[in-house]
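REVIEWER CHECKLIST
Item 1: Sequence provided? yes
Item 2: Single chain? yes
Item 3: Sequence as submitted:
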Amino acid sequence: MKTVKRTSSLASCALASVAVLFAATGCQKDTPAPAAAKAEQDPTAITVSAELAKQLSIGEPRMQDVAGSLQVAARVDTDASRIARIGSPVAGRIIKLLVLEGQYVHQGGALATLHSTDLSDTQFSFVKATSQEKLAEQATLRAEQLVKADVMGLAELERRRAELLQASTEASAFRTQLGGLGMSDAAIHRLESTRKLNADYPILSTISGTVLERKVTLGQIIQPAEIAFMVADLSNVWVIAEVPEESSGRLRKGMDVTVRIPALPDQDIRGKLSYVSPIVDPITRTVQVRMDLPNPHGIFKPAMLAGLTFLDATERKTTIPATAVVREENKDFVFVQIEPTKFRLREVSLGMESGDNRVLESGVSPGEKIVLDGAFHLNNQRKQNAIKGGE
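Item 4: Structure as written out by the authors:
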C-alpha cells in the first residue's frame, strides 16, 4: 500500500509540473512586448549615448527683449533733391561733347558746346540796341547844349529824350534776354565792349556730381525743352521700399530701420525713415517709404538691391536659437529632452526672427528642456535609425 501511494504522489507531481510548464508557455505567448521596446519604435524619439548627449547644448527657452520687425524688399536710388536735368536755353547743334557717363563734374563745368543761330541773332539785336542807345544819348546831350544856347526849342529836346529812353529800354530788354539764354554778366559786358558775336554756347553743369546720363550726340540739334544731361550728387542716396498696405499702419517718420545690401554683405546700416508717403498706390496697394543714406565714398550705387527692416518697440518674448529648429515638411520642430539621453521631436509654433533667435509661440511647456544646438545632426541620426529599424 505504501508503494502505491508513493507512485500516485509521483504521478501527481509530474502532472502538476507539466501543467505549470504549459501555463508558463501560454503566458509567454500572450504577454505583450515591454514598453521600452515599443518606445524604441517611436519614429519621433531617439536615444543617444551619454557621450553624445554631453556634446549637445541643452537648456530651456529663455526670455529676452525682442523688437518687433517687418522686412520688405528695397532698392538704392538717387536723392531726387540732388539731381540736375540739364539742357540748353537756346536751340542749336551740338559741336563738342566734353564728358562721358560716369564722369564727375564740378558746378559750372562745361558738358558740351553747341552752335546757336538764335543766340547770335539775340547778340546782334543787343549790339544794335546798345549802339542806338549811345547815339540817342549823344543826340540828347547836344540838344541840351543847343537849348541852353537858345538855338533849339524844348520840344526837340523832349523828343530826343524820349528816343533815348526807348533805346535804353530796348538795350536793357536784350541784355535781360541774353542773361536768360545763359550768358553771364561778364560775357554780356565783353560783348558790349568788343561787339564781337559768338554763336557757340557752352552747356554748363549746374551742380557738382556724377554724369548719370548723356542724352545727346555730336551733331544733334536740340531744342530748349530737351534734356541733354542728367547729373546727380551721389554723396547722399535714398533707400526706397514699397510696404504692403496691410502693414503700413505701423509706419511713421523717424522710425528705426536697418538696411542690408546683398552686394555688401558685411554691412548692416542703421537709420531712420525720412519719408512715409501719405497715399496708397492704387495699383500696387503699397505705401512708399524711404531712408536717407550718407554715401561720401560712393559705395552705395543707385539700383542696388536691398532689404529694409523696420524695428518697433521691444517686448519680452520667449525665444529659442535658430540652431534649435528642425524644418520638416514646411513645419517647425524641436527636440524635447525626455530623459538624460532620450529626446523626442515635437512640432512648435514660431514667430518672427530676432537676430539669431526665433520667437517661440507655443509647443514647449515651462520647465521643459530642448536641444539648443545640434538639433540638425540629431535629426539626421533619428532618420538613420528609422531607416535601419524599417529594415
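Item 5: Key structural point noted by reviewer: Helices lie at 2-30, 35-40, 50-55, 117-148, 154-180, 185-194, 375-390.
Item 6: Recommendation: ____
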